[in-house]
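Table S2 (continued). Query chain:
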Amino acid sequence: MLRFSSKLMTTTSIAAKQSLRVTGAVPACTRRWYTTEPLPTPGSSSTVDPKIATIVDQIEGLTLLQTSELVSQLKTRLNIQDIAMPVAMPTAGGAGGNAGAAAAEEEKPAEKTEFNVKIEKVDAAAKAKVIREVKNLAGLNLVEAKKFVESVPKVLKESIPKEEAEKLKKALEALGATVIME
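Corresponding output:
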């Protein structure tokens, strides 16, 4: 047993010497590719330009409204245009018979499912009631609701289901407003 362990020890020491020789023979430029250290990410370096650091600190202190105003100013000054997200259009399943069916479907106007509720005019006698209702419906404060009602025709709610739009129309017309669904 003692012999076996000594032989094992000599075998491991030989392997260790060979591995040292191999790593010593590898040039330094290729050894660097085998490193386990993570690559530095942009912006994480400790040497950040002081001008950029002050700009970031100033932006960090802005409110949401100020930030949106900053974005719009940058877009206008740098001539950056808004990009609409592409929408995938459904395609016909095949050619031939399906193409005729698809053409027939295109001729039929699609039934509208979402509507905009627009207040056209308000009777002077019922103005206070309509202001209260607009305040509750749109989640506005009293001053904003009054300005809204005084600046009609204006859209109250956009892209709402047909049932809800009809319900709002009936409620506002009962109070004395002229409402249309677009």
